[in-house]
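Q: I have three molecules that I believe assemble together. Could you output C-alpha cells for the complex as a whole instead of separate predictions?
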Amino acid sequence: MTEQGKERGTSLLDKSAAELADLLAAGETTSVAITQACLDRIAAVDTDIHAFLHVDAEGALAQAAASDARRSAGEPASPLDGVPIAVKDVLATEGLPTTCGSKILEGWIPPYDATVVERLKDAGLPILGKTNMDEFAMGSSTEHSAYGPTHNPWDLDRIPGGSGGGSAAAVAAFEAPLAIGTDTGGSIRQPGAVTGTVGLKPTYGGISRYGLVAMANSLDQVGPVTRTVLDSALLHDVIGGHDPRDSTSIDHPWASFAEAARTGAAGDLSGVRVGVITELGGEGYQAGVQQRFDESVALLVKAGAEVVEVSCPNFVHALAAYYLIMPSEASSNLARFDAMRYGLRVLPDGDPSAEDVMRASRDAGFGDEVKRRIILGTYALSSGYYDAYYGQAQKIRTLISRDFEAAFEKADVLVSPTAPTTAFKLGEKLDDPVSMYLNDIATIPANLAGVPGLSLPAGLAPEDGLPVGFQILAPALADDRLYRVGAALEALLEAEWGGPLLDQAPSLSDVEPVETPGGAA
Amino acid sequence: MTETLMPYDDAIAAFDPAMGLEVHVELSTNTKMFCGCSVEFGAEPNTQTCPTCLGLPGSLPVINGKAVESAIRIGLALNCEIAEWCRMARKNYFYPDMPKNFQTSQYDEPIAFDGYLDVEVDGETYRVEIERAHMEEDTGKSLHVGGATGRIQGADYSLVDYNRAGIPLIEIVTRPILGAGEKAPAVARAYVATLRDLLLGLDVSDVRMEQGSMRCDVNLSLAPKGSDELGTRTETKNVNSLRSVERAARFEVSRQAALLQAGESILQETRHFHEDTGSTTSGREKSDADDYRYFPEPDLVPVAPSREWVAELKAALPVPLREQRAQLQADWGFTDLEMRDVVAAEAVGLIAETVAAGAPPQAARKWWVAELTRRANEDGVELTELPITPAQVAAIQALVDAGTLNDKLARQVFDGVLAGEGEPDAVVAARGLAVVSDDGALGEAIDRAIEANPDVAEKIRDGKHAAAGALIGAVMKDMKGQADAGRVRELILEKLA
Amino acid sequence: MPDITRDEVAHLANLARIDLDDAELDHLAPQLSVILESIASIADVAAADIPPTSHAIPLTNVFREDVVRPSLTAEQALSGAPASEQQRFSVPRILGDEQ
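A: Yes, here they are, computed for all three components at once.
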C-alpha cells in the first residue's frame, strides 16, 4: 500500500471517467497508472469500506497494459478504453469468482462472461474486481451480504444503500471511477442517493441481462454507477444496445447518451416540461430530503423548465405489487441453487438422498432475507393464491404503467426524491423487513413500468449532513432525456456548491478502521 | 406383489374404459429449444451443454424459431387451432435432472388446441380428439449407480448427463377416448401409430420410440358399463413402443376392473410399465405436493404467430394421411385388403421407403407384411425395430429380380442381415447363396434328372408341360436350392422339346 | 385475508426445499404475516377487466435461428460440480420419480 493511495486531491483518483479518458487520449497518463492508483486506493481504504468482495489486481493491470498498447498503436477500442471499472458481483465473469453475496455460491467461477462484462472487455475497460451486494440483490442496505456489510464512505456507521452498496461505495470512496450496478426496485438509484453518486436504471431491455444472476427477471436491469452524469452516459454508450442472447432486449437505434449529457450540461432547459409526482414526497419523506429536492426543482425552473404537478394515484400500490412479483420470480430463479451442479453442497449425517442434500444446502447456503423472499414467493405462486396475489400484482403493473402514460402526456420527465431518507445506521432496520422495504417506495414504480430512471446528488440534508438523491424518470426509450435534464441540474448544483458534492466527503485517510463482521478478504 | 387381474373380456363386459394419451415428441431441430447446443443423439456426456441448458446463474433462454414452426405444423396437421398469442410458463418442481428446477413449458396458453386425428382399427374409423399440443423442453438423463438393478430404486447415487436437457419437445394431449369399448387399447395403439406416421410425414421428428424421441403416457380409467361418470384414472408413464401401449392399456383394464369388482377404489397415481412382464406397477401418488406454481416465463416474450405465417405453413403441409394412403394404394396397385394389412402391420412408411429405394411395391409389401412382420412378432419387437433398413430390403429384392437369388435364398439373406452379418451382398458372398446360373452345371443336373425319371421326361416330350414340376424339383434338390427355378424349367422344356 | 401459520410456512419451506429448523420457523412465520398484511391491500385494487402486465415493454416473437453454436467443453460444464464421475454430475441417490 502506498501513501498515495490514501491521498485524494491532486491524484488521478479525483478525475471523472471523462477526464481520465481525455488524459489518456492526450497521452498524459496511462491506463496502468490509473489502474494502479485505484488498486492502491482499494488497498488503503477497502478494509474500512468493504466495497469489494474480490479484487483482481493482476487481471486489471494486464488489461490496462493491453489498453496502453492499443493506445500507443493509435487504436483505442472505445472512448473509455483504459478507464478501470468495478463490477457488481451479480454479473458472471469468466474466471473470476461470482458469489452474488451468497454463501451458496462461494467459490463459484463462471465459465462465461455476462454480455455487459464482455462489452466492457471489448471496450478496453480494466476490471478491478467484484463489488459487495445484498445476497442475490435482496436488500436496500448491503447488510444482507453473506460476506459482511459495506460502509458508507460519508459515515462508516451508516449503510451505503442496497443492494448495490458495494458499487456505489467504491465509486463514492474513489476506489474506482466507474462501476456497474443492477436495479430491480432501486438497487442502483437508492445507493446512488445515499452515497452522493450518480446511478441510472435504463429502459427495461436497454442493457442486456445475459449473465446477470436474476432476482426478478421482469424488473432487473443493469446500469452505470458513476460520479457524474456524463460518465454515466459514456458508460451507458459502451454497455447498452441490443443483445440477441436476451429475448427481452430491445432492438432500438439508440442515439449517443454522451451527446445528450453534453447538450444538457450547457444548462438550458427551456421548453422542457418537468412533472413533480404528488405521491412521491411530503409525508414520510425526511425534511432535509424534501428541502433539497424542492431547491433542485427551483433550479430547473431557473434553467427554463416548466414545472407541473402530476398525480400517479396507483403508485401507492407499487410497493405491494413489487413485493409479490419480485419474490415470486425470485423463488423460481433461486430454485437452481440445489447443490447438484455448482455451489455449496452440505451433506447431512446418515445416508442422505438428493432431496435431503438440497434441503440442507439451501438452508445453510441462503441467508434470512433470501429465505423470507423465497417462502413469500412460493406462497404467492401457490395454487389458490395465484390470482389473489401474483395475478393481481400484474394488474397493478398495468395501472402503474397507465399512470405513467398519463403523466408523460403532461410532462417530458417526472421528478421525485430518490429515497425518502438519507442513509440510516447499520443494523437499524435489519430485523424490520417492512420498514427496510419502504426505502424503495420512490424507485419501484419505474421498475414495474419498465421506464428509465436516474438518481443524482441534490446536496446534503441539513439535519444530518448526508447526501440526498434527486430522481428523474422518463418514458420508455427516452433515456436520453434523463441525461439531458440530469446534466443540466448537475451543472447548476455544482455551480452553487463550487464543485462536485463528493469533494465534501471525508477523505478516509484518517478514519479509524472499523470491524467488518464476517468480512471476507 | 402380484396384482389380482380380471380376464380382459370379463372386465370389458362390466366396465367402459376411458383413455387419454399424452405423447412427448422430441423435435429433430438442429439445436435445443432455448440455446444453440446441438441435439445430436449419442454424443459424449455433457459435451452438448452451455450456460443456458445447464441452468447456470445468469444464463437466459431464447426460443428456437424452427421449434415454433414445427409446433405450428404439428398443430395444423392435427386439425388444431393455432393460438394468436401465447406464452411459455415455468413449471416449478425440484428434480436433479432438471438444471433450473423448473421446466420451461406452456400452461394455460398452448400454441395449438382443439384438434383431432382419425385412426383406423379393423376398417373402422375412430376420431381421437386432441385437447392441446404445447412446446416444452426435455430434461437431462440419469445413470443410477449401485443397487441391484441399475434402476433408480436402491441406487447408491446417480450420474447426470445434461446433453438431453433443453431438447425441444412437443407434448400432444388427447381428450378422453370414450366409447371404444373392447377396442380401446387397439385404438390407443392405432392413434400412436398414426401420430407417428403423421410426424414422420411432417419431417419434424425421428419418432424413434426405442431411442426415446417419442414417449407415451397412457391414462386410463374405468366406469361401470352405461355410467356417464369417469372413474379415477391412473397415468402409466413412458410406455415406449406401440405394442406396449396396447399391452399397458389391457393390463390396466384388467387390474382396475379386479379392484373395482372387489369394491376397492383406484388410487390416482402414476404407474410404470414393464416390458418383460407386460404389467404396470405403482409409482408416485398424485398429491397436494404437485403444486407446480406455474407462472409466465419472464425471460421470454410472447409467441404471436401471424395469421399469414400460419396460412403459409398450412398451405405447405403434406397431404393428410388418409389421402396420402389412398394415393399410395393407387400408386402401388394394392387391393383394399392388401392395404388394410399394410396399415395393420404399421408398414406404410417402411414400404414407401422400400419402394423409394427401387423395389416393386408388391415385393416390398410381401417382405414387410408377411416375412418381416412374422419375424418381428417372433422377437416381440416393433417392425421398425428390426435391424434391417428399407434400403436393405430393396437391395435383397434387386438380387431376386436379377435372378441372383430366389425367394428361398432371399429368406436366408434376411436371416443373415438380421443376424448382423452385414449388407445383403456381403451375406450372399459369405454364405455362398447365389443361384447357379451357369447353364453348363444346370444342364448336367437336368440330364441326371431326366435319366432318373424317364417316364416323366416322356410325358413332357408328349407335350404335357405341367409334368415338368417333378423334374424341376429334382434339379433344385440336386442344386441344393441354388438355382433359378424359372431358368431350370426353360432348360428342361428346351431339352425335351 | 393473510395470516400465515407456522404449519403453512413449514409446508412452503418443504415446497421450496429449504430445511428450516424450529427456531427459523418461529422467527419467519410472524415476519411473513406482517409482510403479507402490508401488501394485502392489493387484492381489491384492480378491476377484473384490467389486463395483467407480465412484460413492461411489449415485444413478441423473439426467435433464434436454428444454428448450432459452440457448447462448453465437458470440463467447463463440470468445473463447478461438487462431485463428478464418468464425465457426469454425481448426485446423491434420488428418491422420487420423474414427473
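A: One point stands out. Residues 8-310 of chain B form one domain.
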